[in-house]
Amino acid sequence: MTTRTTAPSRPLPDLAALAALATGTGPALEVTSPSDGRPLGVVRQAHEGEVAGAVRAAREAQKGWAARPARERAAVAHRFARLVLDRRDEILDLVQAETGKARIAALEEVLDASRTAAYYGHAAPGLLRARGRLGALPLLTKTTELRHPKGVVGVITPWNYPFTLPASDTVPALLAGNAVLIKPDEKTPFSALLTLALLREAGLPERAAQVVVGPREVTGPAVVDAVDFVMFTGSTATGRKVAARCGERLVGFSAELGGKNPLIVLGDADVPAAAAGAARTCFANAGQLCIGPERIYIHEAVRERFTSLFLDEVSRLQVGPGTSWETQVGSLASPAQVAKVRSHVDDAVAKGARILAGGAARPELGPNFFAPTVLADVPETAVLCREETFGPVVALYPVASEEEAFARANDTGYGLSASLWTAPARGRKLGARIEAGSVNVNEGYAAAWGSHSAGMGGWKESGMGRRHGPEGLLKYTESQTVAVQRVPIAPSGRMSAEQFADLVTAGVRIMNRFF
Ligand code: NAD
Q1: Active-site residue, from 50, 109, 256, 435
Q2: Which domains are present in the chain?
Q3: pLDDT at 8 > cutoff 90
Q4: How far does the centroid of ligand 1 lie from the alpha carbon of residue 158, in Å?
Q5: C-alpha to C-alpha distance for 246 and 224, rounded to whole angstroms
Q6: What pLDDT sits at residue 116?
Q7: How far is CA 257 from CA 151, 234, 238, in A?
Q8: 354-357 and 417-421 as β-strands: parallel, antiparallel, unpaired?
Q9: Is residue 295 predicted with pLDDT exceeding 80?
């Protein structure tokens, strides 16, 4: 396993200017870089009252924003999509500094944010259009379905994709005519502030989107309690708390939560491609990726070959800090992540698991590095057998048949993402057998994630609602049915109630045949 230690080559964006965009006058929050512990800058946190004030200001700004034609709002998204690509290196530098991730992993944030914005820039005006619907009485009832914005949307995001998650959830909420209050994780506020800066540069009115930073147990609930819809991304445990609060307030919410994603290698797979794909995707973003695989089920027929090729690929992964494009695995995001990963590995080993690769921290690379780790013989009692590790750790499990592979892949409370390696001709049919919101055939996660016109989200305990696709925009709207009636739906003239009843029964009989 080689290492790269190229130092950052450029100064970071002006962090003091970004910090000034945060709404809040509370205590300063110091942000440090996890890859070397250097201080990056400070951001003022919002008091609880300031969160409520930000929502009031957002409500005012929302009226003017929603009154603009959908195409005008979409033009802001298109400009943002272009700006993100133009300012790619600046974004990569900041995201890398704030998260410690490898540059190639940070690139996913740039591409995803830009594609999501462009997709919705193209699709939103059509999706939001008033639609004629079949009326109660054909020709006599003119029924239209309209889409109205919810009002102010709270977007709560984690630290693992701190630029694109605020961007890709905020843009569709804005295009639907809402104002947005973003609450990023405390470890990564600057990336969210850069998202805000670029949205404003693209033409977004000042108060239509704001960022509030603050302690998770205070600022998070304050946002949830003040907005009209919550878009939450984070752990399943926090998602439950947010869901309970939204339930009490009867406001809508959408949640993208945790996963324990399977990768299946069947007997007819292209084994070298599967081994390379698995190594690339299990350790992408140092395993801190909600859709990254943590369990690999290998058909007995290809087990030996796959395992040997996979371990070979893992041994060649380039791990380390710095801005080199060649580095594949960066730092974990915090000491807490390292402690969690270590405890999962130690627990599995104590219960009988074997370490085939890695298995330990890499302090010589930086305070929060952990080696890409492959385990075998992980017993059912090990914590990592079922719980999300969210780090560079994957467990291998042999399976004797395809039936067993699908049964074990589905034997989980989660259902976020899956990867299946098989003959392409069988991919769609077999993929549909996996209980997950996204299934990637002959790819780890990028194929489904990058299909921005199709929904993305979790089954079971991995979430509710979808981002991307039409659903990822329409969830931020209230639908309204306006039905204009030409003649009353009642007996007319001297018609008796019974005659009316017979007439409408006959009418419904005819309608049922055609509509
Ligand atoms: P987390 O749930 O601890 O925190 C996520 C966000 O919620 C942070 O901004 C945090 O400050 C905020 N928060 C914490 N408590 C809150 C509360 N009571 N009310 C409102 N907000 C609150 O998640 P994390 O551990 O930081 O992130 C990693 C998790 O996120 C993993 O489980 C990962 O799978 C998941 N994730 C899911 C997706 C997806 O698209 N499904 C994407 C990225 C990450």
Answers
A1: 256
A2: 9-257+468-477 (3.40.605.10), 261-452 (3.40.309.10), 486-514 (no CATH)
A3: no
A4: 5
A5: 7
A6: 98
A7: 24, 5, 9
A8: unpaired
A9: yes
Q: Tell me the C-alpha distance between 320 and 512, whole Å.
A: 66
Q: How far apart are CA 407 and CA 221, in angstroms?
A: 38
Contact 417, 259 (CB under 8 A): yes
Helix axes 70-86, 164-175, angle to 10 degrees: 160
Q: At what angle do helices 216-226 and 48-67 cross, to 10 degrees?
A: 40
Distance CA 161, CA 146 (A): 34
Q: Which helix (H) or strand (E) holds 149?
A: strand 141-149
Atom of ligand 1 lying closest to residue 388 CA: 32
What value does the mean pLDDT take over residues 3-9?
49
Encode pLDDT of 370-403 as tens digits. Answer: 999 999 999 999 999 999 999 999 999 999 999 9
The whole-angstrom separation of Cα 451 and Cα 471 is: 14
The pair of structure tokens assigned to 102 is: 């490898």
Is the separation of the CB atoms in 221 and 230 below 8 Å?
no
DSSP conformation class of 162 = T
The pLDDT of residue 4: 46
Asked whether the beta carbons of 185 and 175 are under 8 A apart, the reply is no
> What pLDDT is recorded for position 7?
46
Q: How many other C-beta atoms are found inside a 10 Å radius of the C-beta of residue 6?
A: 14
Task: Single out the residue of 57, 36, 35, 54 nearest to residue 46, CA to CA.
Answer: 54
Does position 265 have pLDDT exceeding 80, yes or no?
yes
Cα(501) to centroid of ligand 1, in Å? 56
Backbone torsions φ then ψ of 339, nearest 5 degrees: -65, -40
How high is the mean pLDDT of the chain? 97
Q: What is the pTM of this model?
A: 0.97
Q: DSSP E strands: which ranges in 222-336?
A: 229-233, 252-256, 261-265, 293-299
Query: 3-class SS at 108?
Result: helix
pLDDT (0 to 100) of residue 261 = 98
Whole-number Cα distances in Å, 504 to 135, 309, 447, 509 = 14, 71, 52, 8
Strand order through the sheet with 131-133: 131-133, 141-149, 477-485
pLDDT of residue 9: 57
Pairing mode, strands 39-44 and 373-376: unpaired
Which residue reads 């694109």 in tokens? Answer: 164
What would the two tokens of residue 334 be?
Answer: 């915090």
Pocket of ligand 1 (CB under 6 A): 156-161, 183-185, 216-217, 220-221, 224, 233-235, 238, 241-242, 256-259, 290, 388, 390, 416, 458, 463
Place of tokens 């600022």: 219
Confidence (pLDDT) at 11: 81
Cβ atoms within 10 A of the Cβ of 312, count? 14
